[in-house]
Amino acid sequence: MNWTNYHTHTFYCDGECNLKDHVRQAIENQMLAVGFSSHAPVPFQSDWHIKQEDVKAYLQEIKHLKTVYPQVQIYTGLEIDFIPDVIGPGDFKAYNLDVVVGSVHYIGQYADGEYFCMDFTAEELAHGLREVYANDVQAMIRTYYERVQMMVQQDPPDIIGHLDLIKKLNKGNRFFDETQTWYKEIVKETVEVISNSNCIVEINTRGFYQGKTEEFYPSKWILELCFAKNIPVTISSDAHHFAELENNFGEAAELLLSIGYQEVQVYLDDKWGDAKFSSKGLQLS
Ligand SMILES: [Zn+2]
Ligand SMILES: [Zn+2]
């Protein structure tokens, strides 16, 4: 349907298809726009970020696709990690990206200097929690949200990636309970900070369709807080394969409508704007 999605990954990073595959699928789906957001290079060893030496080819290939497939709007972008004093969206200004997704995946460092990523497995999260946070769950989660706040205040992206990613590996409340007051407070504080920025919050369907989370990122109660603070939203699937380009968009739209949202943010004709929507797609005037 005529959706847009600016959060996608390919073989350039940890995705499982080519740029062209996403574009062809987007055309088949009759989407209005597709944007690419490879994990931006980081200044340390990683097997899931695009390599610095490949960025040029990545951007050139996107540029080329724009000329080959005029049926759909195609945009450059990166999903840029925010690590205080190490890396952030501002480090990629020179690339003049169309759409910048900013995400926190790292929440500290091990004694040997290795960065603690909280996005892999529950076992690795438990390991980092023990080694980096001496099993203090609240301290770990506070750090996550404090980093999101720092990013929004100091180095804001266009889109805040998967706002409550910290719940990804929390199946069965293994690490924490989202309904507890301390958790709600830090989330509320974060939403307040976002409301004082121009950042867009994405409703990201990936954790849900991967079967990892019971709700989308972020959870409904967080989207309700966002709505109350007039924070704009966009729908994305964080697609790592072209078959995932519109996963659960209808449900995401229904959820947003049920909360009261009447518009989502779309990047079309090289600029951000509002679009009305239903569970069947965008309704552009
Ligand atoms: Zn991410
Ligand atoms: Zn992503």
Secondary-structure map:
Layout: E1 4-5, H1 19-28, E2 33-35, E3 38-39, H2 55-68, E4 73-75, E5 77-81, E6 99-103, E7 106-109, E8 115-117, H3 122-133, H4 137-154, E9 159-160, H5 181-195, E10 200-204, H6 206-209, H7 220-228, E11 233-236, H8 249-259, E12 263-268, E13 271-278, E14 281-283
Parallel strand pairs: 1-2, 2-4, 3-5, 5-6, 6-9, 9-10, 10-11
Antiparallel strand pairs: 7-8, 12-13, 13-14
How much is the radius of gyration in Å?
18 Å
Low-confidence stretches: none
> What would the CATH topology be?
TIM Barrel
Count of alpha/pi helices: 8
Q: How much strand?
A: 15-25%
CATH class: Alpha Beta
Q: SSE string, helix = H, strand = E? A: EHEEHEEEEEHHEHEHHEHEEE
Gap between N and C termini: 16 Å
Helix % is 25-40%
Shape: globular
Description:
With 285 residues, the chain is α/β, with parallel strands linked by helices. It has one domain: Alpha-Beta Barrel (TIM Barrel), CATH 3.20.20. Helices cover 33% and strands 19% of the residues. The chain is built from 8 helices and 14 strands. Helix 4 packs parallel to helix 5. The two termini are 16 Å apart. One zinc ion (ZN) binds next to loops.
Features:
8 helices, 6-stranded parallel β-sheet, single chain, binds zinc ion, alpha/beta, 285 residues, TIM Barrel, 3-stranded parallel β-sheet, globular, 33% helix
